[in-house]
Amino acid sequence: MIRVALRGVRAHPVRFVLSVLAVTLGVAFVVGTFAFRTMLSSTFDDIIATTVVADVYVRGAEEVSGDSTEAAAGDVQNLGGTRTPVSADLVETIEQVDGVDRAVPDVSGPAVLVDADGEAVVTTGPPSIAFGIDPQDPSLVLTDGAWPDAGEIVLESSAARTAGLAAGDETTLVLGDEPRPVTVSGVFAIEAAAAGAILVGLDDATAREVYAPDGEVAQIAVWASGPAAGDAGPPGAADEEDIADRVGADLPDGAEAVTGQQARDEASESIEQVLGFVQTFLLIFAAIALFVGAFIIANTFQMSVRERLRELALLRALGASPGQVFTSVLAQAFLVGLVGGGLGVLAGAGLVRVIRWGLALADLEFAGRAPLGGGQVALALVLGAAVSVLAAVLPARRAAAIPPVQAMRDDVAPERGTRTRAVGGIVVVAAGAGALWLASLLGSSVSESPTGWTWADDLSPRVLLGVGAGLVLVGVLVGSPAVARPVLTVLSLPLVVALRPLGRLAQGNVTRSPRRTASTAGALLIGMALVSVTGVIAASTQASVRSIIDTEVRADLVVDSATRTVPDGAVDAVRDAPGAGTVDAVRLGVAPAAVVDAGGTGTAGEPDAGSDGTDVAGVPAAFFDTALEPVALEGDPTSTLEAGDVVVHRRTARERGWEVGDTLRLGSADSSEADGGTVDATVGAIIDSQLVGTGVLVRDEVFDDVVPASQTSTRIVYVTVTPGTTVADLRVSLTDAVEPYLVVTVLDREETASAYADQVDQVLVILYALLALSIVIALLGIVNTLALSVIERTREIGLLRAVGLGRLQLAGIIAVESVLTAVYGTVLGVATGIGIGAALPGVLADEGLSTLAVPWEQVLAILGVAVVIGLVASVWPAIRASRLPVLEAVTVD
Amino acid sequence: MAMGDLEARASARDLVKVYGSGPTAVRALDGVDVDFARGGLTAIMGPSGSGKSTLMHCMAGLDSPTSGTVVVDGVDISRMSQRRLTALRRTHIGFVFQSYNLVPTLTAAENITLPLDISRTRVDRAWYDEVTAAVGLRDRLHHRPSELSGGQQQRVACARALVSRPSIVFADEPTGNLDSRSAGEVLAFLRRSVDELGQTVVMVTHDPRAASYAHRVVFLADGRIVGELRDPTQQEILETLAGSAGGAAGDGPADVDVDVAERTA
Predict the structure, then answer these.
(1) How is domain B8-264 classified at the CATH fold level?
(2) Which strands form B201-204's sheet, in the order they lie side by side?
(3) How far is A480 from chain B (nearest CA, A)?
(4) pTM listed for this prediction
(5) In whole angstroms, what is the distance from residue B189 CA to residue B196 CA?
(6) ipTM exceeding 0.90?
(7) Among partner residues A501, A887, A891, which is closest to B114 by beta-carbon distance?
């Protein structure tokens, strides 16, 4: 039986080509994702291995990672997460420890380099940082010029290339507070690929002045002395632990010593975590692609079984059991999956090479290693085979059910009815819609118990959203055959009238087998539903952002920075600009926060152990009068700030369970006095705001008490005009004032909204690019079905040609069929997508999505794309059909 | 030929068709001369492999001859391009096939007017009514093929072949898949279309009974014309078949005998 099955594939390889291709594309995506991750991992591991090279690191004992990544600027040396700082003065203590050669404080922070053309070098993603150079650091190799003195910098070689600067060039560097004219004294290299990061080396004094004005540094690198030190290579783990123990014994409270190995491990771990998210994200799209591919395979086998009805019945008549027929069909599917999976592995490996080459062209260098593990190859093959076999199960069951007597009959089994599909579809869609409605209700409600049922109130709106969206999509797929005939009949009406008799013939062909048309269109339906959900999210986000900025921003102008940090010098320049009235700077930091007195019940006590770091924003007391007007859910934000109490963002309040009246202890009790102490403050108001995404807001005075000065950065500045000045004039003066800072921009409300909208658009482009693969696979599905149905309809086509149908007319019929199928899938997909999208504002209000907006222009564009997809998909089948020799087509058995 | 007094609607001269090449080449037609006169129902008979289907395909512009000429309606079609052949089939030639001969997604009426729709020609209502009346299916015109019996389907196919007033209609085993009653209806209609509607029909058949409806029967064996009967009876046809089969060398006779036995049983 297996031999019969394999012969079947060999006899008609063309029929399975597109199924193989569908598996190949899906598996290539999976393999490419794995290889991409390996490439990123090895790149970052290299960076860690070559930059985190000291034997021991001394750092703050307490981790204060906040909710948002905005708080702290990226820092390769500090990948393990943000911690409380340590005093640079500890260097002397540490150097006294036996076995320590020297201790070097790590002074680094964000910096903006100006390139040879006078433009700021802006990186999106990778950090742009400056750090104090330790010429003895073995990981840094000077390749040209000299190490920097005051007023000089050295550039990492890829940064020098990106900026077009070389030793001896003069340029500007924006460091923390102000732009400084500097001379490039040299170029250095690190052993790892920089992966797009801009690394600028400063002389130690300047670095300390800029990044550790209060003597606080993120960490201190400690080098062991003796044979283990320096270029003799790193000491063994035992030595590192030994030294770390001895250093640790001499450290004050609030500081700890860890071995270099531990620092490297922690850094790798946090990177692996991020890469894990990236990988999961990409794998979701790979899964969608494979799922869509499964439709092609299912359709191929469905049609192959239908066509081989007599052959299979003959096998049954000759004594094959239903199980054997079933197995023979699955064996074919297994072969298709295995071949597709194998090709996919090769294609995936090639894909990553192309990506790396493309990134290298964009000056983003990555390590060359992207090997595929045997396990990953095996997984890819198993995945390809599994998808293929699962997709073929239903057709195989049909094949097994063919009665032997069918071998004698001439007629083809009639299409099964679609009533069960209609009922099933309605039930599943209804269940999904119910879940979406509940998700929307739970997500948008402020009440504790929106439904009144405990079990329902405890459900997570996001999980419900996901389940509901999935159910609706599956329900539409299930019910699609039932609506295919009426919907297609309506869709094809204009063509039937306009293209006689081609439109009528094509209409007949697409409605003759609603199940087949529906499952062909199903692949496209999924892709288009996702595209339209994405589109609705994007349009709604943009619309929401616009309405929020209209209602929430009180200030006339906003000063923002491409680096997400406004230099202190720029803030001062803004304050001094003529025409500037109220200048409200928002400073961000992270501080531990915990409830010490819940709801004023007098249960005062020590903060519980879970005193997690929270994003804290420091603003002027009158911030909510002049800069922003957030939605106050409870309490009065303005009086709360004036009283020195805490305003909490709704999201944080919900996550942490804080309520108005709770007393919070902000700040770290362990840190030295210079780090600020702790402040107990009451939660006075809960707000909802899209522009302030951070956890808690306090007035500047409180902020200074709880967040160490070295750990703060100004995120954004709101400016209001003085009476008698126009906004336009203020804008000119502000623009002049911040001009030296290069990365700082002045935006009015409209531009602020656009800036947010642009960010949304960038994400949208990435999502569309990732969804494009499933659309391409869906297109292949249409090609597949058309090509197979051309084979199936050979005799009918012969008849049409015999009675005088021209080749172009025949091609026209197939093109119309194809377009109708594509448009049908798209119409259903877009409708499903918009339906799902309607539930989003309720659930994603926290993410800045409060208004539902359907991008109708985009919907039209998608329909246009569907027509193009249909036309493209019809090309090959149409050529095949019109090349069928009339005589053979008429006389075919 | 004998019917020289009537204008020939289609004629072949020294028609040769060779399939394949070298030692495996098969001469399906080996120098055939034949004329099909206007207003006649001609049956082509012969054992399997005698070349009767090939002759019909070549004369209908579905296949191109290796050598020789085919003239339809005064035009030499043997060297025509595919495009012109398509146009010719659309306007000058009607077809009736053995089976699966209707487009399943179209109604009977739509199937009948299909050739006119394809060529974007207006339907001649009076002629359409006459043809559909003749096939006797006026009340079934809006049914799909799957809702019609085999005989009804074949009569729809005949009406379709006639609706564009072709110069000549070719029917390939039109009764091959039908029971004898349905076959009788179809054959009676084909004969009526010649006698009453003035059409020209050429029919390939195995079946002596079917051939007995024809004005004239042409016998083929091994790619050559080996005999001819006018207004034959079924008995005459059987005798001629036996004679020509006996005269022709090879494996022909057994085939014919079995066929004849089956069809007449």
Answers:
(1) Rossmann fold (3.40.50)
(2) B93-96, B168-172, B201-204, B41-45, B216-221, B224-230
(3) 20
(4) 0.74
(5) 10
(6) no
(7) A501
